[in-house]
């Protein structure tokens, strides 16, 4: 709720400042306002045209082009929605139902097309912003839809006076709040100069995906990010899991022994090998680790694996 109130105060305060400056300085370059928006809702007049198009396609005219375009839009929209739902789950610690989301999106796009609308997909920006503003139930969606409908039907003249500069500022704040905590912590590590090679690689993936999303599109950016992450993962798995190897003398026990016991243990500490590990341990890297441990076991009585790293 705090974020929504801050956004509302920002819109009102920015609008007041916009018109105050414009009144004081007539030629101030503050940018335009939104302007008059079309009021009301379109009628479902596209149904007759859709039936006519289907009748024409029955004869095979443009059928392949329509089917191909529809398939591409459906696949991209489904992937976009599922990825957006996964982002919402990560931010709100919830779980979505994929089939329900896709069926609802399909029915909504069918209804929108009858009114002349275009195909849409799930937007995680709106959902995450609503969640962080305090919306925790379906009532938040109903209220936001009702307010949007009321603005479209009777608030067009009010929206016409909103400065675009103020709306741009609100969008920048919303975009900043959408950055996940993992990326924020990654940036803090790099600024503090404690980032290792993995941190710099992850930062490169973030920058690349963000750049492709702005210049090319969402789906291309996600695909490129997935393949680049897979390549970095494979490269990381080819590195050794062993960070360091030392004997028991370098990592002695913290227990205090008597003089005789300490003397006997000092002779045996060289036969203890402590292996400090780092990285992901899974079936693709266990074979090399096993070979390393077997080679150490030839000159040791005990091998201790330190997985704390």
- The coarse silhouette is elongated
Helix content bin: 55-70%
**Strand arrangement in the largest pleated sheet:** 1-2-3
Oligomer state equals single chain
| Unreliable residue stretches | none
- Which class of secondary structure composition applies to the elements? mainly alpha
Number of helices: 13
Fold and architecture overview:
- The chain is mainly α.
- Helix 10 packs antiparallel against helix 11.
- It has a three-stranded mixed beta sheet with strand order 1-2-3, with helices on one face.
- Helix 13 links the parallel strand 2 (272-277) and strand 3.
- It has three domains: 2-177, no CATH class; 181-237, no CATH class; 242-306, no CATH class.
- It has 13 helices and three strands, in the order H-H-H-H-H-H-H-H-H-H-H-E-H-E-H-E.
- The model has no long low-confidence stretch (mean pLDDT 77).
Short overview:
The chain is built from 13 helices and three strands.
What key attributes describe this structure?
mainly alpha; 3 domains; single chain; about 300 residues
Task: Summarize the topology.
Elements: H1 2-24, H2 46-57, H3 63-92, H4 98-114, H5 124-132, H6 138-154, H7 156-159, H8 164-177, H9 181-191, H10 197-215, H11 218-237, E1 242-247, H12 259-268, E2 272-277, H13 286-297, E3 302-306
Parallel strand pairs: 2-3
Antiparallel strand pairs: 1-2
């Amino acid at each position: 709720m705090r974020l929504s109130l801050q956004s509302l105060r920002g819109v009102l305060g920015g609008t007041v400042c916009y018109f105050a400056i414009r009144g004081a300085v007539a030629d101030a370059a503050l940018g335009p306002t939104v302007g008059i928006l079309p009021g009301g809702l379109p009628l479902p007049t596209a149904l007759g045209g859709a039936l006519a198009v289907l009748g024409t396609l029955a004869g095979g005219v443009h059928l392949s082009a329509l089917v191909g375009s529809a398939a591409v839009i459906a696949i991209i929209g489904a992937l976009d929605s599922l990825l957006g739902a996964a982002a919402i789950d990560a931010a709100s610690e919830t779980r979505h139902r994929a089939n329900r989301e896709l069926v609802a999106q399909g029915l909504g796009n069918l209804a929108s097309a009858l009114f002349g609308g275009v195909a849409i997909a799930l937007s995680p920006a709106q959902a995450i912003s609503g969640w962080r503003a305090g919306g925790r139930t379906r009532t938040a969606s109903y209220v936001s839809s009702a307010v949007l409908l009321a603005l479209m039907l009777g608030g067009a003249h009010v929206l016409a006076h909103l400065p675009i500069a103020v709306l741009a500022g609100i969008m920048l704040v919303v975009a900043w709040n959408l950055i996940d905590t993992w990326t924020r912590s990654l940036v803090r590590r790099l600024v503090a100069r404690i980032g290792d090679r993995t941190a710099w690689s992850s930062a490169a993936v973030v920058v690349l995906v963000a750049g492709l999303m702005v210049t090319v599109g969402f789906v291309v950016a996600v695909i490129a990010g997935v393949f680049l992450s897979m390549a970095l993962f494979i490269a990381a798995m080819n590195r050794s899991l062993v960070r360091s190897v030392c004997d028991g003398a370098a990592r002695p026990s913290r227990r205090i022994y008597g003089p005789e016991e300490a003397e006997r243990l000092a002779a045996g500490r060289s036969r203890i090998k402590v292996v400090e590990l780092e990285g992901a341990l899974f079936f693709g890297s266990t074979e090399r680790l096993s070979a390393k441990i077997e080679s150490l076991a030839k000159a040791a009585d005990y091998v201790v694996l330190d997985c704390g790293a």
